[in-house]
Amino acid sequence: MADREEGEIDISALRLHLRDEYAFVNKQKRDLQKDYNTIVSTGDSLLRGLWIAGQQWRNLNRLRGGPKFASECAYTSSLLDSIQFQDGYATVGFKEVKYGNFLRDLRENTEILKSILILADKYNIDTSAFLRTIITSLYGSCLFPVDEKSVLTIVKGIIQYHLVYSEKPLTIFSKDGNSFANILDVLFHTSLPCRAFLVLACREVVFDILLDGSLYWTLEEQELLSVMDVQEVRKRFGEPGSPGTTERIKDHMMRCWVALADTVYALFKKINSSLVCLPDSLIWIVSCFYKSSLKRGFNDGKARQLVMRFFINQVIVPLLSRPQPFIIDTEIRASRVANFNLKKVTLIIQTLVSIEAGDDMSYLSSEARQFYENLDK
Predict the structure, then answer these.
(1) Radius of gyration of the chain measured on its C-alpha atoms
(2) Is 168 helix (H, G, I), strand (E, B) or coil?
(3) How confident is the model at residue 1 (pLDDT cuts 50, 70, 90)?
(4) Is there a contact between 156 and 281 (Cβ–Cβ < 8 Å)?
(5) Which H or E run includes 38?
(6) Which sequence ranges are marked TM in the entry (predicted)?
(7) What is the pLDDT of residue 109?
(8) Which of 20, 136, 216, 376 has the fewest CB atoms in 10 Å of its CB?
(9) Among 285, 286, 304, which Cα is nearest to 294's?
């Protein structure tokens, strides 16, 4: 009898204990679900904040490029401050899966993208915004080798189209409606190895030019007098026609020629010494460019000239033309003289490449021809 009562008591206590355990487990589940929702919400907020911070940082770097971007940067900043994120599934519903599958297939099928870009080049359609979106989103700015390989496959197809199959192979050097130039622009501004190489090759010389704004580096006397104010001309050289004015102008021109020659030599020397750090992706593009030129039927010398023109005009020159904020991340505000000198150095480098390639240089003045003839090639 006593054993039966003890058994009943144990069962009753066990039932109460199980009920308490059940209530405790349910409470823990609710707490865990609440914590999970909090973590997800916090993670989303951090992710959105990180994205906005990245965009604001790019916007700040663009603002450092000069006051001409001030209004555009202010407008972009206000848009970023008022941006509203939406749940993709809540907006498009089950179609989100279809969009995801489409983007996945587009990412994996480089032939489709290559065909789209080649067709755009045929009709001179600007693909810069499209390529920037594709490379930075679908291919994640080529951070992973598999993404970089896919982008390089597209680059190879475009190079072969222009150099091997196109009726006008030299259109690959044009800036308008050229997918090849647009891809390079995105790669050089997103790929860390490419940016590191360009900084190593150009930063020192560009800094020297931007910090030295004492003289206008010109090749022609008429150009010198046109870029300087009348008062500055009189201050530096004296009244026109007065004794010694012509000699002072000639002396100034000689100093300009020496400064330009020294800067060009220094830049080429720095580029040459930096080639050991050339990233693998750029080496692959150069190799593909050379092999495609040979496949077109160009001899070895002509193929090397095309590679040189590609490397200087489409790798080095764009960075010299726009050093801020891409490779010169600084608060330096270049003077009018320094900007003029940087443009002049860029033009001289392009002209040297054209002369080396045998292009028609009849448009050059006698003074400019004399300068290029005196340069030690």
Answers:
(1) 31
(2) coil
(3) very low
(4) no
(5) helix 2-64
(6) none
(7) 92
(8) 376
(9) 304
Residue 288 to residues 148, 199, 296, 325, Cα–Cα distance (Å) = 15, 24, 12, 30
**How far apart, in whole angstroms, are the C-alpha atoms of residue 137 and residue 15?**
58
Give yes or no for a contact between 285 and 183, defined as CB atoms under 8 angstroms apart. no
| Collapsed DSSP state (helix, strand, coil) of residue 41 | helix
Residue type, 78: S
DSSP class of 233: H
| 183: nearest Cα among 193, 199, 172 | 172
Better-predicted residue by pLDDT, 115 or 10: 115
Taking alpha carbons only, the member of 359, 326, 372 closest to residue 173 is 359
- Looking at residue 67, the DSSP 8-state letter turns out to be G
Q: % helix / strand / coil in the chain, to the nearest 5?
A: 80, 0, 20
Q: Which residue has the higher pLDDT, 366 or 312?
A: 312
For domain 193-374, give the fold: GTPase Activation - p120GAP; domain 1 (1.10.506)
Distance, in Å, from the CA atom of 93 to the CA atom of 127, rounded to the nearest integer, reads 30
C-alpha dihedral (178, 184, 187, 188), degrees to nearest 10: -130
Backbone angles phi, psi at 115, to 5 degrees: -65, -40
- The span from the CA of 294 to the CA of 175, in Å, is 23
Average pLDDT over residues 371-375: 77
Q: What does the DSSP assignment read for 87-145?
A: -HHHHHTTHHHHHHHHHHHHHH-HHHHHHHHHHHHHTT---HHHHHHIIIIITGGG-SH
Task: Read off the pTM.
Answer: 0.74
Judged by phi (left if over 0) then psi (alpha if -120 to 50, else beta), residue 265 lies in alpha
Which pair of structure tokens corresponds to residue 286?
């150069």
Tell me the percentage of the chain whose pLDDT exceeds 70.
92
Q: What is the spatial distance between Cα 188 and Cα 320, in angstroms, rounded to a whole number?
A: 13
Nearest to 130 by CA among 122, 138, 281: 138
Best CA proximity match to 130, nearest among 164, 166, 173, 177: 177
Where does CATH 1.10.506.10 sit in the chain?
193-374
